[in-house]
């Protein structure tokens, strides 16, 4: 089959372009730190995020043994943030993975085949899904699925579907008439093979940017759903749930709200910086 | 004309699918509305009587057609919780949300226009990077957390603004402004992020176009070029984005209204979801979706009218 | 063309929205800060239905106290006192109640209150779709003797009847208004109470005005009563501080101690009549063995729950009856020390020494969630892994009614008659018996409690009931919530009554 001898060098060009952007590096570092915290959570703290409840230090202010203070059950906020990074990482990955695995094949099919199903069913359903304000859709879906972290992930993932389908479809329509695809078709490759082996790799760069940005927005959506009370279960140290708890203490213990929100902001910023960096690195119009 | 008809024709099946989605989504909600309405003290007979009264014992299709038929006649149904007409409920909640949406949009414009134009006028300078960074921050800070921080600072610590609540404009204009300022800033900052980028890229594109180059060649001043020539054309896509943004804000203020306890449209939706008030949620979501679709059509049509390339050429894929 | 379009667009788009905004604005006219001749009270929830027959929410009852009078009322000690009925007699067999009604009482619509109206109301409250049906299930017939005398005939002796009539079942609505408005009555309520309904904005506020023809001369003393809906008690407190409201029906628990001696804000903090706790699904294999339930009961630290989740504002307890009840038995309510060893022995005897795992359902109230997390940790001590699943209250109710749960966190707002805290919960056919607890001895005791008329004898019966429940543990009683009201010091004349309602008749503002 057609091999791309220059792929390796393209990759190195891409890496060079990405790394020439300081903001992009910062983004990658933040995301890296999140993953590191998620992996090494138990090494970073001596407390348990759920069961170490200190009834004598409820809503303690930052400092001393609890550098970020404690929550309303006397649990160490720093510990919950560190363990919460696991949920945050999951919140970034799961909905996007769902939207990718479901949306991209549909987009590939729709764009490649065209015709009735594309024009009248898929496009219309995508349009319909896009007509809902995203938070309302996530809210209704999460409530319908019955709350809980995994259901929230699914709700957010469904909300991402239209974007993934649209982007894939638009790219496929552009690419499918290019010479090399025509060539593959003329030598008798199956449609499936053409779609997966020849078209998909060329759609990937655009999708990569979309994935990163979707991850950023997924984290915010998860936090939003947990804040409303449709996300993680109360003992789970989700950063959004921590904000929900903090809501009751805004007037008296404001620091409870401070750290989880700051963590969310930094991590989301990281993903956004990475997304921007990827876009620049992959955009042929922008010169080095 | 052709485009207008085509657009509207295309929207009808979309709206149809939207209505089915909304209906099915709510049918799948766990919890029996009759139980929910009657609460902890209800007797089983009362629950059964309530189910009968609500028509919940009829087949799904009948329930759907019944609802859709009424909606098409402009009757959005009656709240399951207290029997008020959903039309009234929505009309009651709309002013607050429209005010918030409009205010947020204004804040977004106030941030986005200067930032976007400055960035585009001085691409790749410190100013550009700064403005881009501000918009990145806007995208990254959860607006509800920003809202909470604003409450802590302005309501709790400084005590100069109310922490939450809403006073209608005509009851007391000063109080009204005080109550909406925090939610509007918190939401507007987020919305400004996308808009700043839009303004910047749109301006950049226009600045590279032939007629601007001609203007430059003619030796016109930068100010004249920027504001007299470029801005006008660069605004077209910005207006489009704005329209869609405003439409989305109708239902998109859910969390803002929750934090600040504002009896708006989003709060209506969320309260009704938690109350299992199916009819209200169904109709309220439908209305917000219809609003988005209609604004989209309007924007497409406007686009076609102002941009001769689209008007004369064929539609893109 | 091009130029014009752009301008038009930029004017029209915001213009339309602005117009929508302006035209949509309501007509509400009340001042932002509460005026002198009015009292503003914040409620934690919007009362869904202003019709006592349909009502199913606690908060409705607070508003009702002002719109509707009842046949009889409660005083601050929980004694039954006359209201629309000036006096009454109970036949020796306890099956006939004769009420003599107050003369010259009129509904807000000008129609006469009389025996016919009482019959209309009690019949209406007993029809199929009524939520009062259960409370009046013992009533066989309502007889009009003469225009001011009415008889309630029971099919069996039912001691809690008078107590029921101090609440929604005894509230009198205008028959004429019901006939006229039908389904719409709940949005246009008409009673004989000290205040008349004026207007409401859903989710925002409810305005009542003085009934100038109120039968108690010289009352009410305040012109206007405004209920503002503030779901967040912190918000309510902020408004109380700024004078936007004069009274709040809830108070942020974490702030109670701080305001104990405030110069502007007073707090009324008294035990409520209800209970909070956890229900077992006795059909679930994990909880069929009594010893398992007892073991769980033994390791739960009630004092810690009240101290942490309620900031000490509550009463730890083991009984369905709170200290406000005349049938209260302090011994069966006293929390016992946590006994991990004893619990382990019980578990071992039940063959569960290695622990097990299950899921508790809870509503989305922050206190419930905190309590569940505390219990989660406490159960860890006996190797029990409790998972927490949170649901909105409606779904929680639906699932527990259908038996689709293992354990659930659920309480009861409480009634002033002890029967109201037991019968529906632990009678084998009780409507709130989601545990599916069924015990012939218990059923017999509960029936006995209903049929006796002597309070002393009834108290003994309920003591036995509670002792048995503490042994069988179908439900773990954890604590009694307190009713905490925040009051501006300018407001005088508020007296708390054991039912937790706000009676505004004597309230004035300086």
Model description:
- The complex is a heterotrimer of chains A (288), B (317) and C (510).
- By secondary structure, chain A is an all-alpha fold.
- Chain A has helices at residues 7-19, 22-44, 77-113, 115-131, 134-145, 149-175, 179-186, 191-228, 239-247, 255-282.
- Chain A has one domain: MetI-like fold.
- Chain A is 74% helix and 0% strand.
- Chain A starts with 6 loop residues before the first helix and ends in a 6-residue tail after the last helix.
- Chain B is mainly alpha-helical.
- Chain C has 510 residues and is of the alpha+beta class.
- Helices cover 31% and strands 21% of the residues of chain C.
- Chain C has helices at 2-24, 58-67, 115-124, 161-165, 175-181, 233-242, 290-299, 302-309, 330-333, 340-349, 366-380, 393-401, 419-426, 440-451, 455-472; strands spanning 38-43, 72-74, 80-82, 85-90, 96-101, 139-146, 149-154, 195-201, 205-210, 224-229, 247-248, 265-271, 276-280, 314-316, 357-362, 385-390, 407-409, 475-488, 491-492, 508-509.
- Chain C starts with a helix and ends with a strand.
- The model of chain C is unreliable at 1-33 (pLDDT under 50).
- Chains A and B meet through helix 4, helix 5, helix 8, helix 9 and helix 10 of A and helix 1, helix 6, helix 7, helix 10 and helix 11 of B.
Which descriptors apply to this entry?
heterotrimer; B: 317 residues; mainly alpha; 14 helices; 0% strand; disordered C terminus; C: 510 residues; alpha+beta; twelve-stranded mixed sheet; four-stranded antiparallel sheet; 15 helices; 31% helix; globular; disordered N terminus
């Amino acid at each position: 089959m057609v091999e791309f001898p220059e792929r390796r060098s393209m990759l190195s060009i891409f890496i060079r372009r990405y790394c020439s952007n300081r903001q992009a590096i910062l983004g990658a570092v933040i995301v890296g730190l999140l993953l590191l915290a998620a992996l090494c959570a138990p090494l970073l703290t001596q407390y348990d995020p759920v069961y170490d409840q200190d009834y004598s230090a409820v809503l303690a202010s930052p400092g001393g043994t609890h550098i970020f203070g404690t929550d309303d059950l006397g649990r160490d906020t720093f510990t919950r943030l560190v363990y919460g990074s696991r949920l945050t990482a999951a919140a970034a990955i799961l909905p996007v993975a769902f939207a990718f695995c479901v949306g991209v094949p549909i987009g590939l099919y729709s764009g490649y085949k065209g015709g009735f199903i594309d024009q009248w069913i898929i496009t219309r359903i995508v349009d319909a899904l896009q007509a809902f304000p995203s938070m309302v859709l996530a809210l209704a879906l999460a409530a319908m699925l019955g709350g809980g972290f995994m259901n929230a992930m699914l709700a957010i993932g469904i909300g991402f579907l239209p974007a993934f389908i649209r982007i894939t479809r638009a790219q496929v329509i552009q690419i499918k008439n290019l010479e090399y695809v025509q060539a593959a078709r003329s030598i008798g490759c199956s449609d499936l093979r053409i779609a997966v082996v020849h078209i998909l790799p060329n759609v990937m760069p655009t999708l990569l940017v979309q994935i990163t940005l979707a991850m950023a927005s997924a984290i915010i959506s998860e936090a939003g759903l947990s804040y409303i009370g449709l996300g993680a279960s109360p003992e789970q140290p989700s950063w959004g749930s921590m904000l929900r708890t903090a809501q009751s203490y805004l007037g008296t213990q404001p620091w409870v709200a401070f750290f989880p929100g700051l963590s969310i902001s930094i991590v989301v910023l990281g993903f956004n910086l990475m997304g921007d960096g990827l876009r620049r690195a992959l955009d042929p119009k922008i010169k080095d | 004309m052709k485009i207008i008809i085509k657009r509207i024709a295309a929207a009808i099946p979309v709206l149809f699918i939207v209505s089915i989605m909304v209906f099915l989504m709510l049918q799948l909600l766990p919890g029996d509305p009759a139980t929910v309405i009657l609460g902890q003290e209800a007797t089983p007979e009362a629950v059964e009587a309530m189910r009968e009264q609500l028509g919940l014992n009829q087949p799904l299709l009948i329930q759907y057609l019944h609802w859709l038929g009424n909606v098409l006649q402009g009757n959005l149904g009656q709240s399951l919780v207290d029997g008020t007409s959903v039309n009234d409920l929505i009309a009651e909640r709309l002013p607050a949300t429209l005010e918030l949406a409009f205010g947020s949009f204004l804040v977004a414009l106030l941030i986005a226009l200067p930032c976007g134009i400055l960035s585009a006028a001085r691409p790749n300078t410190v100013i550009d990077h700064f403005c881009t960074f501000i918009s990145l921050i806007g995208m990254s800070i959860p607006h509800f957390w920003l809202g909470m921080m604003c409450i802590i600072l302005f309501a709790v610590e400084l005590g100069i603004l109310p922490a939450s609540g809403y006073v209608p404009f005509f009851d007391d204009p000063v109080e009204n402004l005080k109550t909406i300022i925090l939610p509007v800033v918190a939401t507007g900052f987020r919305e400004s992020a996308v808009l700043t980028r839009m303004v910047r890229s749109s301006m950049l594109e226009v600045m590279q176009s032939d007629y601007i180059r001609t203007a430059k060649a003619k030796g016109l001043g930068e100010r004249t070029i920027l504001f007299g020539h470029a801005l006008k054309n660069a605004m077209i896509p910005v207006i489009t984005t704005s329209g869609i943004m405003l439409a989305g804000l109708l239902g998109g203020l859910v969390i803002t209204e929750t934090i600040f306890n504002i009896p708006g449209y989003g709060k209506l939706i969320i309260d009704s979801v938690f109350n299992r008030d199916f009819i209200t949620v169904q109709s309220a979501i439908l209305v917000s979706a219809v609003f988005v679709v209609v604004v989209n059509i309007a924007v497409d049509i406007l686009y076609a009218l102002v941009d001769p390339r689209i008007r004369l050429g064929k539609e893109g894929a | 063309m091009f130029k014009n379009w752009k301008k038009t667009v930029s004017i029209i788009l915001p213009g339309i929205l602005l117009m929508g905004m302006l035209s949509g604005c309501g007509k509400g006219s009340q001042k932002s800060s509460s005026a002198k001749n009015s009292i503003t009270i914040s409620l934690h929830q919007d009362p869904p239905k202003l019709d006592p027959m349909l009502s199913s929410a606690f908060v409705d009852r607070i508003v009702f106290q002002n719109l509707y009078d009842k046949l009889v009322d409660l005083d601050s000690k929980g004694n039954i006192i006359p209201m629309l009925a000036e006096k009454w007699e109970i036949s020796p067999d306890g099956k006939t109640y004769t009420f003599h009604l107050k003369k010259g009482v009129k509904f807000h619509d000008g129609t006469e209150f009389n025996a016919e109206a009482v019959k209309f109301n009690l019949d209406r409250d007993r029809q199929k779709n009524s939520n009062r049906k259960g409370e009046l299930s013992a009533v066989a017939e309502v007889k009009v003797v003469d225009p001011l005398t009415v008889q309630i005939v029971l099919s069996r002796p039912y001691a809690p009847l008078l107590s029921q009539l101090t609440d929604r079942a005894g509230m009198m609505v205008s028959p004429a208004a019901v006939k006229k408005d039908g389904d719409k009555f709940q949005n246009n309520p008409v009673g004989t109470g000290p205040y008349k309904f004026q207007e409401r904005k859903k989710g925002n506020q409810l305005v009542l005005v003085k009934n100038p023809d109120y039968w108690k001369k010289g009352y009410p003393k305040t012109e206007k009563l405004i209920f503002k809906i503030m779901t967040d008690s912190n918000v309510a407190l902020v408004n109380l501080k700024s004078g936007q409201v004069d009274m709040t029906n809830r108070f942020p628990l974490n702030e109670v101690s701080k305001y104990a001696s405030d110069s502007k804000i007073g707090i009324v903090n008294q035990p409520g009549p209800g209970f909070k706790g956890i229900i077992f699904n006795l059909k679930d294999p994990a909880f069929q063995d009594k010893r398992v339930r007892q073991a769980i009961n033994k390791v739960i630290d009630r004092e810690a729950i009240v101290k942490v989740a309620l900031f000490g504002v509550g009463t730890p307890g083991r009984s369905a009856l709170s200290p406000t009840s005349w049938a209260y038995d302090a011994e069966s309510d006293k929390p016992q020390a946590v006994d991990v060893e004893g619990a382990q022995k019980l578990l071992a005897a039940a063959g569960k020494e290695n622990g097990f795992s299950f899921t508790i359902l809870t509503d989305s109230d922050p206190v419930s969630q905190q309590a569940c997390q505390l219990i989660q940790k406490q159960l860890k001590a006996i190797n029990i892994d409790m998972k927490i699943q949170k649901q909105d209250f409606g779904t929680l109710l639906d699932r527990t009614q259908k038996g689709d749960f293992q354990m659930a966190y659920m309480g009861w707002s409480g009634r002033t008659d002890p029967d109201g805290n037991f019968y529906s919960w632990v009678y084998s056919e009780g409507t709130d018996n989601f545990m599916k607890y069924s015990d012939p001895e218990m059923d017999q005791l509960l029936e006995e409690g209903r049929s006796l008329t002597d309070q002393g004898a009834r108290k003994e019966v309920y003591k036995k009931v509670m002792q048995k429940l503490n042994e069988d543990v179908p439900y773990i009683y954890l604590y009694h919530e307190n009713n905490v009201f925040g009051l501006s010091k300018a407001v005088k004349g508020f007296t708390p009554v054991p039912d937790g309602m706000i009676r505004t008749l004597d309230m004035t503002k300086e």
